[in-house]
Amino acid sequence: MIASTPPRTTSEVQYQVMWNRLISVVEEQAQALVRTAFSTSVREAGDLSAGVYDAQGHMLAQAVTGTPGHVNAMADAVAHFIRRIGRENFAPGDIYITNDPWEGTGHLHDITIVTPSYYNETFVGFFACTAHIVDIGGRGFGADANSVYEEGLYIPIMKLADRGVVDQTLMRIIRGNVREPDQLVGDIYALASCNEIGHRRLIDMMKEFELADLSGISEFILSNSRRATLERINALTPGMARGEMRTDGYAQPVDLKVQLTIEKDRILCDFAGTSGLDKKGINCPLVYTKAYACYALKCAIAPEIPNNAASLAPFEITAPDNTIVNALHPAPVALRHIIGHMVPDAVYAALDQFLPGRVPAEGAGCLCNFQVSLRPRSDAPAPPHARRAEVLTFNSGGSGARPGLDGMNATAFPSGVMTMPVEATEQVGPVLIWRKELRADSGGAGRHRGGLGQYMEVGAQEGYEFDIQAMFDRVNHPANGRQGGSKGGATTIALDDGAPMRGKGKQFVPHGKKVMMAFPGGAGYGPVCERSTAETLKDLAGGYITAQAAEELYGLAPQQIADVLERAKNGEAF
């Protein structure tokens, strides 16, 4: 009689190898999206997310490339797809789609694609990805809408492809409702393709390790991640602390208030007391608030633990209905990042009381984005080749100083997206970037200096006028220092003739005019009197601070300043 083969067991070492492989799979998934996307926000800024999920819809791994707002919100999205589509309706070749702000990632400008993955005709899990698209119709990307119905085309959770057959009726509806149909349809196909890339690599892995499904690796990833996260939380002293911060809002200031409670096995983050809904589109669905609150807590408490469903679960985020951080349908939410990107600094105001010396000073917070809608000039004959164009550009102010280091210059924290190169921006439309450089003195003074913001001057080619959609904050409420540090520089925006402009909203720019912008700096950390003279001299030589600031804020003597500037002029190193 032939002896039966004992069942194959998988060691922890093998599971760890598989876990690392899954991370590489989703990173390749994300890079495929970067390489094939039509929108500059994806190709150049990396405003996207990609992930793999088990059959129950639990996120197992996320790509390194991407933003916390997309990734952490998308962690909850797949459960909505399962509920809306129904497991009984899943089939090989299916592709699902939505841009629902409350069941996706926070606003209509994000398309989320979910693809069920099959191996040997057995359903084993999902791949999902999200990308910000430049135009979804409606008023366009901006804060001016009064409800979500004005903000663009809504795509409920539905099948984009049924058993491999694309829904051409849906594609025609999409094309008929947006300004840049080829760009949007191209992005949708890029999203679907990157999920297919992830699926292929997953099947390769399953064949290599002789896996019939993902149940074993899923249990390994989720149980280990949860255990490690709970160890970090339970090492903290239980207690409660409150934090708050004020931002510009649209027509009136917004107050973010947080009560942070550390208990056994969980951290509660409650936004009771936060301002109510705004009339304009800066409101934030709770899914996006949760994404950035969890991100802030993980960065401070468990930064080395991979991001997945289990490592996020112990962080519980709540807010009263129809506060600005828990906007319910049909609130306008197009610029939900204006509030969502400020959430980490509000959380850190509370966490600093638990963990002094752990969290940074406030930074610029939200991205310094603007969208330019160009058209042939109307005040005189336009060139025959003039055409309409939509150009979106992502930019950053400075991040806050850290307890042991200066803040990072023109770096997007907490969003993590990249600043778009001038060359890429000018390539997609007749826009001209006349100036883009670091803004001296914008970093708040302190033992550690805040990161610098930047200057930008924007106009249009000859024969064009344009509307600019401003999406700025920190105009009236610059970043606050921590532990005695100074405020960062405030945002400014005006026409080149000095006429002031608003920090938010669509505004007309006549032919031949430029928009002059100065983006905010991060705040300082610790008393400025504790900053070393050597660091101040280096900042002066590098142009990060001016001679006036070196003398008035940092206490350098006039002769020291003159000597440093002379050495810098001669190219001497510091």
From TrEMBL:
InterPro entries: Hydantoinase_B (IPR003692), Oxoprolinase-like (IPR045079). It is an enzyme of class 3 (hydrolase). The keyword Hydrolase applies. The keyword Metal-binding does not apply. Pfam families: Hydantoinase_B. One of its GO terms (molecular function) is N-methylhydantoinase (ATP-hydrolyzing) activity. Signal peptide: none annotated. Its EC number is 3.5.2.14. One of its GO terms (cellular component) is cytosol. Keywords: Hydrolase. This is Hydantoin utilization protein B. It comes from Planktomarina temperata RCA23. The lineage of its organism: Bacteria, Pseudomonadati, Pseudomonadota, Alphaproteobacteria, Rhodobacterales.
